[in-house]
Write a structure and sequence with these properties.
single chain, alpha/beta, seven-stranded mixed sheet, 18 strands, 37% helix, binds zinc ion
């Protein structure tokens, strides 16, 4: 009943959302502590709890968890994958969590036949194997290891001429066109890097290739970068990068798009899944690649295509012909997701989610256990606080996902199974994956940018003993391109966080369900070349990466502090000023992109008419002129401009209200009003979703963030506009601008509504400066 609220007033006012947290003091008299999202009465207790929490994680525990969990290969369907899940389940329970395993049945192909041989001009049979190394004690577990392969490659037996396609991106094929070389009927060999691996067979097939080989060039993660394993951390000549190669229509089980693959669920026929590649694909080492590449003739490859092998890189085709056979066992395998809860006291229906995957391609010490062990240590520490009497306001849910490697299977299937509940209850999702020494790297929803900055200010860097915030901020200054960018970094209160694309379990939460998400990890000091090989194991990690687990502890401290702060906050620490600011930068980028496409088209067409390309082409090394380009029309960005403008104004309104609530003598907010306001705050991310989703990719519903359809990992912000511009779909770009603009306007309306409600329940006079009516056009 409403009138009773008075007795459960939160007595003191809100902290300034714009002020950095408690470590910042001004002048001689220390300012009272401030903490974004907390009433003054709750701040001391929260900071005290968080400090206690950060003192608990122990590097030696993380080392032991990693030793146990990486003792055997633990890919989907392996005995050790299940064993690890059960072992973690027991730990969560021991630490006082309510925990269970949820199972899903998913398509997980494993190798049945792999063969790659050159049949002309000389015969060569690829080894396709990674040998054990005597000083590395788990590298000899061959009977348990999945051999090198690309999961979800189509079965095939193909023979054809070999063509080198560099990284195999669409730009690389444009270069090939100008060299007059077609890959129709050919088997292409592409190097790893520059795009997600699944893009390589996709683009190859679109250009008519019949098979695809992917190899790791030593230029990218081998000897050109440092000593190779086991002398150093880099990829040796036999190490192969495994990995999934699905298409980019959706994440999760290729046979259950949009619904959970619970045991017994309906499933597509394999032949009907758009996610399976259109041509066979196989990954190889550079020892296997070198004879193939050396045999290719035809034009010398453009300079930027040269790798670090001691050969001259040719494009082909020529006499080199290869025979490629890829066949899989197309089995259904069981996933084991571990889901653990600490129930909330005040708002148990609001959930703070945290996850890391536990499955690997082989022993997976770095990927994923370096992140998983930090998450486990957080859970142990929170369990200890819970035993000592701490009760988080909101429910905390810790997830150890299975099946991330083949395609975010465990997280996506869990989300799709529980989507109505998750969309109703989830405040945010915090993800990690592999972790290493160095700098904090955060990507995520920009409504949480300020929040993440606040957390980073409170965690100490183990090597430099300054805050991880300061270290990342100073790195950004060091890496800035030019004086203008440096000035912006120095002036801005918060460091910018990057937008999320794809590459770990956050993707489905954000892109499909509109749950605000953050991915955090440390790294940047060590080069790594073990990725997805048998050498990513305990020996490698404890000799060449975060060997003392100091950054494992830093990750546990950072992610755990973030979880606790979200779980305990009075008013959820979302902020829309940084969000609106970031959205304006995207809008500017899109306008610039259109302008540069217009300029480039005009210039190219002029040069074509002038005969420039013909005149400069060397008859002995001919380059064909590029294609004529349609000049892009003017595109109406007004809906986007209006949406961004409305959001900026609403964000300022919200910020002004929160500031006023912090002033001395401000009225308190009744707790039941807070509960519903908080629900509106975290629902704000959902407003960026549309039912129809992105053009051609309806499963991807978020209109601000998506992985690129032709980049895979790398994000495309405002994808309905940006990708349409890049693909020269002008009408679709204009429709996209309308759709995204409407999403921004919806967001602005909600933020403004929350601000007005805060004004009402906090009995503040309406804010004149920011309350001009927002127009919705
Ligand atoms: Zn991973």
């Amino acid at each position: 009943m409403k009138h009773l609220c008075a007795v459960i007033f939160c007595l003191l006012s809100l902290s300034l959302s714009a002020v950095p947290s408690q470590q910042q003091t001004v002048g001689a008299a220390p300012a009272p502590p401030v903490l974004q999202g907390f009433f003054s009465a709750s701040i001391a207790n929260e900071l005290n709890l968080e400090t206690k929490f950060r003192s608990i994680p122990r590097p030696e525990n993380m080392r032991e968890y990693m030793r146990i969990m990486s003792a055997h290969p633990h890919h989907v369907g392996s005995p050790w994958d299940k064993q690890n899940a059960e072992w973690m389940l027991a730990r969560f329970k021991e630490w006082g969590w309510q925990a269970e395993i949820e199972n899903f049945d998913v398509l997980f192909p494993t190798p049945k036949e792999r063969r790659l041989e050159m049949i002309a001009p000389a015969r060569f049979v690829a080894k396709l194997a990674e040998p054990p190394i005597s000083i590395d004690p788990t590298s000899n577990q061959q009977a348990e290891q999945l051999p090198p392969y690309n999961a979800y490659s189509l079965d095939g037996d193909v023979t054809g001429p070999l063509v080198y396609v560099n990284y195999g991106t669409r730009d690389d094929y444009e270069d090939l066109d100008r060299l007059g070389i077609s890959v129709k009927g050919a088997i292409v060999i592409a190097r790893y890097g520059n795009s997600w691996r699944g893009i390589k067979p996709k683009v190859a097939a679109e250009h008519g290739a019949i098979g695809c080989i992917i190899y790791s060039d030593p230029a990218d993660d081998g000897y050109a970068q440092g000593d190779v394993y086991p002398r150093g951390a880099m990829r040796n000549k036999d190490a192969v990068q495994r990995g999934a190669v699905t298409d980019t229509y959706y994440a999760g089980d290729p046979l259950t798009p949009g619904w959970g693959s619970v045991p017994g669920a309906k499933r597509l026929a394999i032949k009907d899944s758009p996610q399976i590649t259109k041509i066979p694909v196989l990954p190889i080492s550079y020892a296997d690649a070198q004879p193939l590449l050396a045999a290719i003739q035809g034009p010398v490859a453009p300079e930027k295509w040269h790798g670090a092998l001691p050969i001259t890189y040719h494009v082909g085709p020529g006499a080199a012909r290869v025979h490629l056979v890829v066949k899989s066992n197309w089995d259904t395998k069981r996933l084991y997701d571990v889901i653990a809860r600490l129930p909330g006291s005040d708002s148990p229906e609001q959930w703070v989610l945290r996850g890391n995957h536990h499955d690997a391609w082989v022993n997976g010490a770095s990927d994923p256990l370096s992140g998983m062990v930090a998450e486990l240590e957080e859970a142990r520490a929170m369990g200890q606080l819970y035993k000592d009497g701490w009760r988080p306001k909101r429910t905390i849910i810790y997830c150890a996902w299975d099946g991330e490697e083949p395609g975010l299977l465990g997280s996506t299937e869990w989300l799709e199974t529980h989507i109505a509940d998750v969309q109703q209850h989830a405040v945010a999702y915090i993800n990690s994956d592999n972790n290493a020494r160095g700098f904090l790297r955060v990507s995520g929803s920009h409504s949480l940018e300020k929040f993440v900055n606040g957390v980073a200010r409170d965690v100490e860097d183990p090597e430099k003993h300054i805050s991880i915030w300061q270290r990342s901020h100073l790195l950004q200054i060091a890496n800035a391109r030019g004086a203008e960018e440096r000035e912006e970094i120095r002036k801005r209160a918060d460091f910018r966080i990057r937008a999320l694309g794809d590459g770990s379990d956050y993707a489905s939460f954000l892109d499909h369900a509109g749950i605000a998400a953050v991915d955090m990890r440390f790294g940047g000091e060590d080069r790594e070349g073990q990725y997805h090989s048998i050498y990513d194991d305990f020996y490698w990690f404890t000799h060449f990466s975060d060997t003392d687990f100091a950054y494992g502890r830093a990750l546990a401290q950072t992610a755990g502090t973030a979880v606790m702060r979200l779980a305990d906050a009075d008013l959820l620490p979302f902020d829309f000023v940084d969000q609106a600011d970031t959205i304006r930068t995207y809008l500017k980028e899109l306008q610039k992109l259109l302008k540069s496409e217009q300029d480039e088209s005009k210039e190219r067409n002029l040069e074509l008419s002038e005969g420039v390309f013909n005149a400069i082409s060397d008859p002995q090394r001919p380059m064909l002129p590029p294609a004529h380009l349609d000049t892009p029309p003017t595109i109406n960005f007004a809906p986007l401009e209006n949406g961004a403008e409305a959001l900026t104004r609403a964000a300022q309104h919200y910020d002004a209200v929160v500031r006023k609530l912090n002033e001395p003598g401000a009225n308190a907010i009744p707790r039941d009003a807070l509960e519903s306001l908080n629900a509106k705050i975290f629902q704000s991310e959902r407003l960026f979703l549309t039912d129809k989703g992105l053009p051609g990719r309806p499963w991807f519903k978020h209109q601000i963030y998506a992985p690129g359809a032709y980049t895979g990992y790398a994000v495309k912000t405002m994808p309905a506009v940006r990708e349409s511009l890049e693909q020269r779909q002008w009408a679709q770009a204009e429709t996209g601008a309308q759709t995204v603009g409407e999403a921004l306007s919806r967001e602005a309306m909600l933020v403004d509504e929350i601000a007005s409600e805060l004004e009402r329940v906090g009995k503040l006079p309406p804010d004149k400066a920011t309350q001009a009516p927002i127009e919705h056009r």
